[in-house]
Structures are given as structure tokens and as C-alpha cells.
Design brief:
Elements (H helix, E strand, L loop, with lengths): L1 H21 L5 H12 L5 H16 L2 H18 L4 E6 L6 E7 L1 H6 L8 E6 L6 E8 L5 E8 L2 H9 L12
Antiparallel strand pairs: 1-2, 3-4, 4-5
Helix pairs in contact: 1-3, 2-3
Length: about 170
Amino acid sequence: AASDVYKRQDLMKTLILDEIHDEPTRKTSDIIASFKRNYDISLSYYYAYTGKKMALKEIFGNEEQSYNDLVWYLKAVDRSNSNSHTSMVVDENTNQFEKVYISYEACIYGFYHYRPMILLDATFLKGRNGFLMAATAKNGNLGMIYCFNIISSLLYLFKNYSELPIESTLTCGP
């Protein structure tokens, strides 16, 4: 009986894997409606939810292992690139990951050879907490340099930027 339940959950995962891959935030109720529409099957909430959960785990891996890998990676960067700057914020009450900042040594010292930044812009991301930030600068050959980053807080970015050993003036335009 237990193996039948697992087989049903695995079948659900297999059937919705592509849909979840394209739209990870898809609601369980939408999955139920999709099964009714596409397969004429009345699906219980339990099987739809469990199938979605298994599909997300297959696509993105284990959340706990990903977090442990991130902690390991930050320690490895600090060990191998002593002049790199890393910072991670975890909620003190829930011990949940919130944000990470990494600035590699080569990138920090590369800024010495760039002209001042000519554009810094950010926009809200729909469906996520955070911003998509774009930075544009000119290099020594007058070529344009573009940098994109997803961040959760502009203040967090500037706080970490101010701790870098870069001698530059950060000016804000109108």
C-alpha cells in the first residue's frame, strides 16, 4: 500500500515536471484544474501538492543541501581568495537564509582600471522579493561594461560596497 502511494506521487511528479520547471510558483489548485482539463482526472490536493513538491526537489535539489553548499562555498572563497569579500545574512529568529554578497578579489582590483560608473539602475522583480540591478561603466578601451545582479536590498549592496578596499567616490545623480 505504501509503495502504491509512492508510485502515484512519482507519477504526479513525472507528469507535472515540465510545467513546474517552466513555472515553479504554480499553485496546487492550478495543477488540479490542469489535470481535470487535460486528462479528465479528478486529482486530490494531497497528490497534486506532493507531486509538485517532488518535482521542485528534482529540479532545484534539496534546500538544506543547497544552503550547506553555499556556506561551504563562502568559506572556500575566503580561504582561497583572502582579499575577496563575502557576507551572508541569516534571520536570527528563524535561522533562515536571507541574502548573500560576494565580491571576488579580481573584480575588486579590476575596479581600479575602470572609469567612474555612468549608470546604476534597479527595478522590482515581479513574483520575488528583490531587485534586478544593472550597472554600466566604460573601460580603458572605451568599451561598455555591463553588470547585472539580483539583490534583495539596495542598502545591503551599498553597505557591502562601502566595505571594499576601493578608493572611489559614490555619487548619486538626480
